[in-house]
Amino acid sequence: MKGSTLPPFDPSDPIGLDDLLAPEDLAVRDTVRRWAADRVLPHIAQWYEAGELPGIRELAQELGRIGALGMSLTGYGCAGATAVQYGLACLELEAADSGIRSLVSVQGSLAMYAIHRFGSEEQKREWLPRMAAGEVIGCFGLTEPDHGSDPAAMTTRAERDGTDWVLTGRKMWITNGSVAGVAVVWARTDEGIRGFVVPTDAPGFSAPEIKHKWSLRASVTSELVLDGVRLPADAVLPEVTGLRGPLSCLSHARYGIVWGAMGAARSSFEAALEYAVSREQFGKPLAGFQLTQAKLADMAVELHKGVLLAHHLGRRMDAGTLRPEQISFGKLNNVREAIDICRTARTILGANGISLEYPVMRHATNLESVLTYEGTVEMHQLVLGKALTGVDAFR
């Protein structure tokens, strides 16, 4: 319109995506961003270098107080946030570190979601309020040492002994495992694959921590060992049998990754942009060279396209129309693009890019895990390939 005044260009929001957010959305985002800036960013390089996440139980309780645990679930002390609000929280948490977002995702989108959707009323009342408050940390046992992408081949078994269940087997790469108070464990039974709510103080349950990781170092990762763990009959999740149970939980968690990966990408892009403006070479800032500007422009385009895709999928989830194939679309695209953004950012920082004084290499190595867990690139390509062609090429 002639004579109208355009809003100024905002380098942090170049296509105006904040216009899509309601005041309530912005409040959630800003609350989580402030918490991460106060409690994570001052310490994360030290935690990452040490390969530990000290004070995880205190951090979980703080996350509970700001409503970040199981935040898209309703009732039982959960915040009842929208899918978009949950996604915004994931983005801000992963902008701090993927390990922090993983803590929240496993707690809310896997362990709590499984109990909320498939559990009995008694299970919900017993566990969900304490998990939402961060008083109890949860983990999710699906992946096994020899069965990652093919959970249907799991060997962990649950057998009836009178009215009890007895669980035997191993799970691998389990976030939160050694600090969890409750584990949702999936096992093969004579009836099919079932989920079990397992208190981690049950005799025969142990969770040795996995060390020597070069990715997700500020995160607790464990093996779960179930050596004849005896559970009462009411430990089983009553509302689901088969892989539909764990796969629906994974879909919910993958949705958070669609957002979270863009948080890691944003942090790396911002570090590269600030560095390019302040660092001088050949008598002028790096930002004054055409090749550097081309890199920054390409990074910004992919970053904000990824956030726009996450917004779109979030609106579909809130409307009840989001399909699992669409979540695969989002995870496949956004994690791949996030890694590429981190790698490009590293080239702008040069040798400084490998230093923990900057977040770029930490995000890049974390994203190598995010690329693999909850569905590898190949699995999501095949999910989309089947959806596009109607032909199942998994086997």
UniProtKB/TrEMBL annotation:
Keyword Transit peptide (UniProt): yes
Domain Acyl-CoA oxidase/dehydrogenase middle positions: 139-229
Gene3D superfamilies: Acyl-CoA dehydrogenase/oxidase, N-terminal domain, Butyryl-CoA Dehydrogenase, subunit A, domain 2, Butyryl-CoA Dehydrogenase, subunit A, domain 3
Record-level Gene Ontology MF annotations: fatty-acyl-CoA binding; flavin adenine dinucleotide binding; glutaryl-CoA dehydrogenase activity
One GO term of the biological process aspect: fatty acid beta-oxidation using acyl-CoA dehydrogenase
Residue ranges constituting the Acyl-CoA dehydrogenase/oxidase N-terminal domain according to the UniProt record: 23-135
Cofactor(s), by name: FAD
UniProt keywords, alphabetically: FAD, Flavoprotein, Oxidoreductase, Transit peptide
Acyl-CoA dehydrogenase/oxidase C-terminal domain: residues covered: 242-388
Coiled coil: none
Database matches in InterPro entries: Acyl-CoA_Oxase/DH_mid-dom, Acyl-CoA_Oxase/DH_mid-dom_sf, AcylCo_DH-like_C, AcylCo_DH/oxidase_C, AcylCoA_DH/ox_N, AcylCoA_DH/ox_N_sf, AcylCoA_DH/oxidase_NM_dom_sf, Glutaryl-CoA_DH_mitochondrial
Similarity remark: Belongs to the acyl-CoA dehydrogenase family.
PANTHER family linked to this entry: GLUTARYL-COA DEHYDROGENASE, MITOCHONDRIAL
Name of the molecule in the record: Acyl-CoA dehydrogenase
Species assigned in the record: Streptantibioticus cattleyicolor (strain ATCC 35852 / DSM 46488 / JCM 4925 / NBRC 14057 / NRRL 8057)
